[in-house]
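=== RUN LOG ===
request id: a7f3
mode: sequence -> structure
chains: 1
length: 250
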Amino acid sequence: MAQELRSQIAALEEDLRDNPNMPGSNPQKWLSCLQFARSTILTVERTPQLRNQLGSDSWTRLIQALQKLAYQDPDTGGETDVALWCERQWATEVQRQPNSIVALQGLGHAWLLKSQKTLARIYREGSSPSSSSSTTSTPLHRIRSPEQCGDDVSRIDSEDYVEARDTLRPSLESFDRALAIANAQGGASGELLTLGAEAFISFANVSHPQRNEAYYQKALRLLRAASEIDGYQVETHLQNFLDENLRYIE
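=== RESULT ===
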């Protein structure tokens, strides 16, 4: 059973690579993958020993693939049942291995993705024809400069803003721990640095303008570190954000 599941995990990873927007580009494949995800979760829940049979690497790849599948459209909240299962597995892995960079990064990413539905709602409610041209919309979040966030001070204590901060705090905590461990072991990967930056940018975007500068500065330092890694390419929208706001850390 374990070997068969390893092959299925590899096939799912390939499907996700080949179909980056699966629900829109290949809805039949999307439904098939979701069926696989739910049946696999059911099998794993009924066969606890399967985790050990799979091995640590395959187990991690399974959670990562299912989480990516669950959040093909993060602005809608994703496939909640699959997403929550992944979140629980990451939390369990962190309990088992408190210093696991992979598990901490996975958990931080889970909370970051979970926040996107609320962040998208905040963005839609605050958008206007005049502001949209200077605000970059991305699949995960909307990147705004520190100056642009000043317009939201009247809504900073609204239900959506509070919910977004509450959801993002565990993400920041997980990424902070992962980054500290990685740096102690010789340095963080570009992916970890970039995901951490996205979490700090998102949190800064929903924080009070008088208190969000430190979060922007942390994000910018992480992006700068990622951009300095040989062979790692920071995504264009994040590189632009770094280039346009370097003055905050120089």
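=== NOTES ===
The radius of gyration is 19 Å.
Residues 193 and 222 are 5 Å apart (CA to CA).
=== END ===
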